[in-house]
Amino acid sequence: MEQTQVASPDTAQNQEAYEEKNVHEIYQKIASHFSSTRYKPWPIVEQFLKELAPGSVGLDVGCGNGKYLPVNPDVFIVASDRSENLARIAVKHQPHSAIVADILNLPHPNSFFDFTISIAVIHHLSTSDRRVRAIREILRTVKPATANASGGKALIYVWALEQKDSRRGWDKGDQQDVMVPWVMKNNPSKDGSSEQSTVFHRYYHLYEETELERDIRMAGGFVLESGYEKDNWWAIATRFDQGI
């Protein structure tokens, strides 16, 4: 089973330092290799983006290499990632923009965007409180629903605990806070010796069934749709005009 069990850090300062070491620094180091493995849009994310009205403006929070930016040429996306190295790759997807930003403190106005996607990001935050805060921050950026308008929508994906049919083998009852290895092969040495591998470990919180919907409600959101796709839980959420 591909995991090392971990305990969540106990203070805000420790949580930030823990995520810096076990998430942010890792993605800085593996950015190029990670990007080379991320090129095919997930079906539900692709469908969500293609169904948006022409001219829609939205966010991709935790965009990675920006693989979702070209999916719908009729919308404009402001992408962001905590990793500067990944943002530099994403910015190549013109005319969209890409910036470095922290999901807990997004540099965007309230109630402005038509949509937001955040794919496989929330699960890297090390406590329930920080994950709910991140969702609240995402919801803050979208237009609220009113009596006369449906409002903006946010699509959020997280890794599932229930993956018994995957190579990882996790399932209900297993530890939810884990370290997941990323294996990166190094170039052969000059003397022709065989390739060596470097293993990096990234922190994940594995979401159990209904946990994502609960976190969205705690963040002040309303779940429109939700489901399971390829070892991930996903949900589409909106918010009402209640001053988030």
UniProtKB/TrEMBL annotation:
GO terms for molecular function: S-adenosylmethionine-dependent methyltransferase activity; tRNA (5-carboxymethyluridine(34)-5-O)-methyltransferase activity; tRNA binding. SUPFAM superfamilies: S-adenosyl-L-methionine-dependent methyltransferases (SSF53335). One of its GO terms (biological process) is tRNA wobble uridine modification. Keywords: Methyltransferase, Transferase. One of its GO terms (cellular component) is nucleus. Pfam families: Methyltransf_11 (PF08241). CDD domains: AdoMet_MTases (cd02440). Residues 59-144 form the Methyltransferase type domain. The keyword Transferase applies. The keyword Transferase applies. This is tRNA methyltransferase, has a role in tRNA modification. The gene is TRM9.
